[in-house]
Amino acid sequence: MILKVYDDTYKTLRLISKDVDIPLTAKDEKLALSLLKHIKASQNPETREKHKIREGVGLAAPQVGKNKRIIAIHYPTSDNFVTHVLANPKIIKESVRRAFLSSGEGCLSVPRPIEGHVYRHYKITVKAYDVLKKEYVTINATGYEAIVLQHEIDHLNGILFYDRINPLLTFNAYPDAVEI
Ligand code: CO
């Protein structure tokens, strides 16, 4: 399923999203699963070409025009996939240590490259309702997974990755941060 993804000029990208009812309504479940389907489709080169969409590893409901606290993440690892479809995710613990992607971050709602390191917590613990498992889960995430989760949860609070780039310390805000 291909969704219309709004760019960062659209109002829903800058609003605080609302918690959804648990268990999910049929409508919210459909929205959650459609986010995952879009991300999976975006990782197929032919689908990307056909629908003129960009490749992504995560998508949040505000990016498709809905201010609901729902996110989907999907990306391959060396031997498997990391997949999360979460409602009302909440970061309950975060490490003092930071991490950043050496190539910087990108976003399906930001159709232009933006340079600079986005320093995030290296390890986080997230509590959420898992839409695929249909139960509450606690996720301990480190490194890349933690970064992607923080990026998507930021969307639920109207925050975009470039908001977190310090223009005065673009590449050196946390000298001890883990480079990923
Ligand atoms: Co994004």
Show the helix and strand layout.
Blueprint: H1 26-42, H2 45-51, E1 58-60, E2 70-76, E3 81-94, E4 98-100, E5 120-121, E6 123-130, E7 135-142, H3 143-156, E8 178-179
Parallel strand pairs: 4-8
Antiparallel strand pairs: 1-2, 2-3, 3-6, 4-5, 6-7
Cobalt (II) ion (CO) binds at residues 107-109, 151, 155.
Number of domains: 1
Task: Report how far the terminal alpha carbons are from each other.
Answer: 31 Å
Count the DSSP helices.
3
- Strand arrangement within the widest β-sheet reads 1-2-3-6-7
Summarize the structure in words.
It is a single chain. The protein has 180 residues and is of the alpha+beta class. It has a single domain (11-179), classed as Peptide deformylase (Peptide Deformylase, Alpha-Beta Complex). Helices cover 21% and strands 26% of the residues. The chain is built from three helices and eight strands; from the N terminus they run ααβββββββαβ. It has helices at 26-42, 45-51, 143-156; strands spanning 58-60, 70-76, 81-94, 98-100, 120-121, 123-130, 135-142, 178-179. The strands form two sheets. A five-stranded antiparallel sheet has the order 1-2-3-6-7. The protein is globular and about 45 Å long. The protein starts with 25 loop residues before the first helix and ends with a strand. The mean pLDDT is 96. The structure holds cobalt (II) ion. The site of cobalt (II) ion has 5 residues, from helix 3. Cobalt (II) ion binds at residues 107-109, 151, 155.
